[in-house]
């Protein structure tokens, strides 16, 4: 059905009609009911406990890098639940859809699910995890009071949320893309995908991409310009090094993604032919452009995880990181080489033997510095007094898992082998091996490691270990069968199979997914139990793990200003050295501290961006124009806001620091 006044209706509602609400899809109706009940419960609880004012003033409008980092990680955990729900549905479908049994997911729904799964897990789980940890930890590690541009930090976060909300909206209004997570043309062009799906994908990623790019600029400026006196580049903690290089990659790679999405949008909205198969278009150019962004993106995700492993290994082995300089150089080499390997994603394109050979060789070369890092971590553990707390368990699981993933990656780097394995389940197993085993395990290690710094109490170790074992065992059950299926020639993105001998492998993989589900549930229980027993798990020292870097020299949680006096750095392991020399916390001589004020502008801009993106998806030209003008007006108005800072009085700083010294 359509609206009565076609002209006004078209102007306001564009192509959106009541038929675009998928009330004929039982799975979506139940999902919507579940989400609605959950949302009402959360909003009701916030209202009942009168927490809206607190959330708005202390969190949503905060420009404190620590709170923004925590909010990024909360976003990542929420989106992990959605992304994993998609994964479970795919595993369930593939385990039962054999022969005459069609399974429970129709083709158009299954295609949306695997597209949403990939998009959400990379852009709205892995990226916010990485950005959140960098945001929280890095300024503390370099002895800074905040990031270089505090407002920009808040704005970046809310733009990421806005992109995530737009992608989630496709669940209940219209459809999502049915193209795979990178939306290759000609499938993503208008003739093959005339519905709203690809447009949701484009605008969701464009809005979130603005936040990511600005965040990258912000972090680079912070690390380059705001390090404590004495902290030369070769005295920076390894996590800060990996954060710097990951953000350099972001600033270099994300504009490519932005431009590629803009060209695809022009094809869809303006009738251009950049990536069509006729009128001068070339859809392989899209594949090149998307992977020129896509391969550095893999290293944007994994480099900060490598930084986490370095910090955790050193701390829990009770010794200095082995080969600091080689670790830095290896990281730099990986960052540079990450731009010289993108073509290995499509050896089968037909570029010819010479091009394929070049990219095959560069792919093998990039594994060398990665291998060097593995040896550095193992030599750090060698003869160390290793304490197997939860963060260290994740490191050990990572080393075993990532080595397997790395070896299968080198195998795929050989073009003749890749011709056999391209687009098979072997590839799916490989990249989940490195993304889960490399990135996600690192994020879980980081959350367990820095949680007491953020909240002043440790996470419950028992439930942490339960979660760890279910995740790790579940991972191997879920993905090792896919290697085998891929070697047998089973291709990816299929919802139904005819050969009954394959079914047992898919059933094993589905069993693995259920184990991972228990691991995720145990993680939620871990958070709940830790909050309930926070007094028992409390850390009053600020240094529960006997850390080595500057963030452990502050209280837990740190005060808004981080450091009353800017620390002086003389060593790589600054805090370890300060403890060796029996450093005493100052209790007098405090000065007023200059701080940035909170602002709601980031939230307003992100909401307007969400409205603009939604309007563009549905061709609501009037609403799009109004929201775009409002966006510009709010941004310009913010530039005239000169009331942006305040001072924390010296006596208040003194009170906080004296209480800390007595703790």
What does this structure look like?
The protein has 663 residues and is mainly α. It has helices at residues 6-13, 26-48, 52-60, 65-96, 107-141, 150-169, 197-225, 238-269, 283-316, 324-337, 353-381, 390-412, 415-421, 425-455, 461-487, 503-532, 574-580, 601-617, 621-639, 650-662; strands at residues 593-596, 645-648. A two-stranded antiparallel sheet has the order 1-2. Helix 15 packs antiparallel against helix 16 (503-532). The radius of gyration is 25 Å and the shape is globular. The N and C termini lie far apart (67 Å). The model has no long low-confidence stretch (mean pLDDT 93).
Keyword list:
copper, 20 helices, Cyt_c_oxase-like_su1_dom, globular, 2 strands, two-stranded antiparallel sheet, 663 residues, respiratory chain, mainly alpha
What secondary-structure arrangement, pairings included, does this model have?
Blueprint (H helix, E strand, L loop, with lengths): L5 H8 L12 H23 L3 H9 L4 H32 L10 H35 L8 H20 L27 H29 L12 H32 L13 H34 L7 H14 L15 H29 L8 H23 L2 H7 L3 H31 L5 H27 L15 H30 L41 H7 L12 E4 L4 H17 L3 H19 L5 E4 L1 H13 L1
Helix pairs in contact: 4-5, 4-6, 4-16, 5-6, 5-7, 5-9, 5-14, 6-7, 6-18, 7-8, 7-18, 8-9, 8-10, 9-11, 9-14, 10-11, 11-12, 12-14, 12-15, 14-15, 15-16, 18-19
């Amino acid at each position: 059905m359509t609206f009565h006044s076609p002209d006004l209706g078209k102007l306001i509602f564009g192509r959106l009609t009541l038929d675009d609400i998928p009330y004929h899809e039982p799975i979506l109706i139940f999902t919507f009911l579940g989400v609605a009940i959950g949302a009402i419960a959360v909003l009701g609880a916030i209202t009942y406990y009168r927490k809206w004012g607190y959330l708005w003033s202390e969190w949503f409008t905060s420009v404190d890098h620590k709170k923004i980092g925590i909010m990024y990680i909360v976003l990542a955990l929420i989106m992990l639940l959605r992304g994993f729900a998609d994964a479970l549905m795919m595993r369930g479908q593939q385990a039962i859809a054999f022969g005459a049994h069609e399974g429970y997911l129709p083709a158009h729904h299954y295609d949306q699910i695997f597209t949403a799964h990939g998009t959400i897990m990379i852009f709205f789980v892995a990226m916010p995890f990485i950005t959140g940890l960098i945001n929280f930890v890095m300024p503390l590690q370099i002895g800074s009071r905040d990031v270089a541009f505090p407002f920009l930090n808040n704005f970046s976060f809310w733009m990421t949320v806005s992109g995530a909300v737009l992608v989630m909206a496709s669940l209940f209004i219209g459809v999502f893309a049915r193209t795979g997570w990178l939306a290759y043309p000609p499938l993503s062009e208008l003739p093959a995908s005339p519905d709203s799906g690809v447009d949701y994908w484009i605008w969701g990623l464009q809005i979130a991409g603005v936040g990511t790019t600005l965040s990258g600029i912000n972090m680079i400026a912070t690390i380059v310009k705001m390090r404590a006196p004495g902290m030369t580049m070769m005295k920076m903690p390894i996590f800060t090094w990996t954060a710097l290089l990951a953000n350099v990659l972001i600033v270099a790679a994300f504009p490519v993604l932005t431009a590629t999405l803009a060209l695809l949008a022009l094809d869809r909205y303006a009738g251009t032919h950049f990536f069509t198969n006729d009128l001068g278009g070339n859809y392989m150019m899209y594949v090149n452009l998307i992977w020129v962004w896509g391969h550095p993106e893999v290293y944007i995700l994994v480099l900060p995880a490598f930084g986490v492993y370095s910090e955790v290994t050193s701390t829990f082995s009770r010794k200095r990181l082995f080969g600091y300089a080689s670790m830095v150089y290896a990281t730099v080499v990986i960052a540079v080489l990450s731009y010289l390997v993108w073509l290995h994603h499509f050896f089968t394109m037909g570029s010819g033997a010479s091009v394929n050979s070049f990219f095959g060789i560069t792919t093998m070369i990039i594994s060398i510095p990665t291998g060097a890092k593995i040896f550095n971590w193992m030599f750090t553990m060698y003869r160390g007094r290793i304490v197997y707390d939860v963060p260290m368990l994740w490191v050990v699981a990572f080393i075993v898992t990532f080595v397997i993933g790395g070896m299968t990656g080198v195998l795929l780097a050989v073009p003749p082998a890749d011709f056999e394995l391209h687009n098979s389940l072997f590839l799916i197993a490989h990249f989940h091996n490195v993304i889960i085993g490399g990135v996600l395990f690192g994020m879980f290690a980081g959350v367990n490691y820095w949680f007491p710094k953020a909240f002043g109490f440790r996470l419950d170790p028992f439930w942490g270990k339960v979660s760890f074992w279910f995740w790790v065992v579940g991972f191997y059950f879920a993905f090792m069968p896919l290697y085998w299926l891929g070697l047998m020639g089973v291709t990816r993105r299929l919802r139904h199979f005819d050969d009954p001998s394959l079914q047992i492998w898919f059933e094993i993989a589905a069993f693995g997914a259920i184990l991972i589900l228990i691991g995720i549930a145990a993680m939620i229980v871990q958070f709940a139990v830790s909050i309930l027993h926070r007094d028992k798990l409390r850390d009053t020292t600020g240094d529960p793990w006997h850390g080595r870097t500057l963030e452990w020299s502050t209280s837990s949680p740190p005060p808004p200003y981080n450091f009353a006096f800017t620390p002086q750095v003389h060593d790589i392991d600054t805090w370890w050295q300060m403890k060796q020399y029996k450093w005493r916390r100052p209790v007098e001589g405090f000065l007023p501290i200059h701080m940035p004020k909170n602002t709601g502008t980031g939230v307003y801009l992100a909401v307007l961006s969400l409205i603009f993106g939604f309007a563009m998806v549905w061709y609501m030209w009037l609403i799009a124009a109004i929201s775009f003008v409002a966006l510009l007006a709010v941004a310009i108005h913010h530039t005239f806001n000169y009331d942006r800072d305040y001072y924390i009085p010296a006596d208040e700083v003194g009170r906080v620091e004296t209480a800390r010294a007595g703790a």
